[in-house]
Amino acid sequence: MTIATILIEDSPTIRSELIPALAEFADVEIIATAETADQGIAALKAHADEWRLAVVDMLLKAGNGLQVLRAGRERRSDQYMIVLTNYATPDIRRKSGECGADAVFDKSSEIEQFLELCRQYSTGQTPQAANAPDAPRPGEGDEGSLDREELIGVEELLERVSIDRVLTEAVSGLVEKNAAAVRDHLQRHGPASKMPAANEPESDQKDGASGSTPENVPDGE
Q1: What is the CATH number of the domain that holds 145?
Q2: Which of 18, 53, 62, 168 could lock onto 36 through a cystine, CB 3.0 to 4.6 A?
Q3: What's the confidence (pLDDT) of residue 124?
Q4: For the whole prediction, is pTM greater than 0.70?
């Protein structure tokens, strides 16, 4: 059975790779995508009666995945939220679970487990068989209330990571822009003209330095 899914991921490259993989291996149909926390929350609300799975990146173009998870805590028991992130640290895993994630997976090393869990959701199998990292359902366990100070600490970390990523992308873009300008200049004008070497006489004749007789000067003078 196809499972209606909202994909909250800010990378177009990852979306383009993930969507066909989910369709092929897990019978997942993407009904909406989002790049920011606000867009993700809006998508959850707009498709509240339709979606059964939400795949949430932790570091988004604006906001973060914890905000999306908290917004979906009041969902039905047959609706699931999975975090798929490059920042699957122990703190992120723990806080994601406390905010309502059903599982947390690392993009670089746990894609197979992620796809297996999605497949089991779509077929109605018991999700524990997917060996997903522990993440209690909303309201389960002894940690129903969040430690606000710890949560803020994690979100500050995510904000710093986001700023670092933006700066890295900006610097990379600037370097590429400068490199492109240099390539364009060379294509249009060719290499810079050869400059005279040190102590090399210049071609212009100045003050008779070449030894030739200046014009309009009578012989013998």
Answers
A1: 3.40.50.2300
A2: 62
A3: 83
A4: no
Alpha carbons 21 and 15: distance in angstroms, whole number = 10
pLDDT digits (tens, 9 = 90+) for 51-95: 999 999 999 999 999 999 999 999 999 999 999 998 888 988 999
Q: Flag whether 62 is in a domain.
A: yes
Helices 90-98 and 148-189 cross at an angle (nearest 10°) of 120
**Using CA atoms, how far apart are residues 44 and 41, in angstroms rounded to an integer?**
5
Token duo for residue 195: 């400059």
Residue type, 159: E
Closest C-alpha to 82, from 170, 178, 6, 194? 6
> What letter represents residue 218's amino acid?
P
| Residue 26, domain member (yes or no) | yes
Q: How many domains does the chain have?
A: 1
Bridging pattern class, strands 53-56 and 3-8: parallel
User: 150-166 pLDDT, tens per residue?
Assistant: 555 666 666 665 555 54
Q: What is the DSSP string of 185-212?
A: HHHHH-SPPPPPPTTPPPSS--TTTTSP
Q: Give the number of other Cβ atoms within 10 Å of residue 179's Cβ.
A: 10
Q: Is residue 181 part of a domain?
A: no
- Residue 176 in any domain: the answer is no
**What single letter denotes the amino acid at residue 16?**
S
For the stretch 72-77, contacts whose Cβ atoms lie closer than 8 Å and that sit 24 or more positions apart, written own/partner, are 72/44, 72/100, 73/99, 73/100, 73/138, 74/138, 75/44, 75/100, 75/138, 77/137
Tell me the backbone φ, ψ of residue 133, rounded to 5 degrees: -55, 140
Torsion of the alpha carbons at 117, 119, 124 and 127, rounded to the nearest 10: -10
